[in-house]
Specification:
By secondary structure, this protein is an alpha+beta fold. The chain is built from three helices and seven strands; from the N terminus they run E-E-E-E-H-H-E-E-E-H.
Length: 214
């Protein structure tokens, strides 16, 4: 059963100056890397692969040449290159340079330390099945992630619609609804009603002043 690609064990890097395509997939194979055809018994194996989905380059390390590479860079034999590679991928500090002789070299950096790896081109008959395996595994990972995202969307409840505050009233209130409104009511005075006691009619009409009786 093929192992899934480990997080941080794969990255996409540009070639040369790094401005635009072509782009290359770079991944590692080792005790903590994704591996392609690694033997579980070879716990010390480590290799870096670079491909553009057509051609393939790798470091072609043997356990002996790997220890020699570490010694050349002043590293302890127990130093884990897979950890180096994951950290460089996370920090986007991986650079690739292709040479005229079809070889390449890769540089990975971690803080102030830098490692350089020489990569040789893998012959096409040997490279084709490895590139095919990588592409199929990447497609499988994408399908798996899409299913997980779809499941999360189904589990997430849709937000309820809330009334918008400060929304203007588009229609005037019903006139009948204002009849029962509280507040002072001003009654219109009718002719013949008493001015002192509104609602009662005057018993006799008002008359003017008679100056003759004065």
């Amino acid at each position: 059963m093929q192992r899934p690609l480990a997080p941080g064990s794969l990255c996409i890097v540009p070639a040369g100056s790094g401005q635009g395509p072509p782009r290359y997939v770079c991944y590692c194979e080792g005790p903590e890397g994704p591996g392609l055809d690694s033997d579980p018994g070879e716990t010390g194996a480590f290799n870096i692969y670079v491909t553009d989905a057509l051609e393939l380059w790798n470091t072609s390390f043997t356990p002996e040449s790997l220890e020699k590479h570490k010694a050349q860079h002043g590293l302890d034999g127990a130093e884990d290159y897979s950890t180096w590679f994951r950290a460089a991928c996370d920090q986007h500090s991986v650079s690739l340079t292709l040479k005229d002789d079809s070889s390449a070299y890769l540089t990975i950096s971690r803080e102030a330390e830098t490692l350089t790896f020489d990569l040789s081109k893998v012959p096409n008959p040997e490279a084709a099945p490895q590139v095919q395996t990588l592409m199929l595994r990447l497609a499988e990972q994408v399908c798996k992630l899409e299913k997980q995202l779809a499941a999360l969307k189904d589990e997430t409840p849709s937000p309820r619609k809330k009334p918008q505050p400060g929304r203007q009233q588009l229609f005037l209130p019903d006139p009948d609804s204002r009849r029962g409104a509280s507040g002072p009511v001003v009654k219109k005075w009718m002719p013949g009603e008493s001015l002192i006691n509104p609602g009662f009619k005057s018993k006799k009409p008002a008359s003017g002043v008679n100056f003759d009786d004065a």
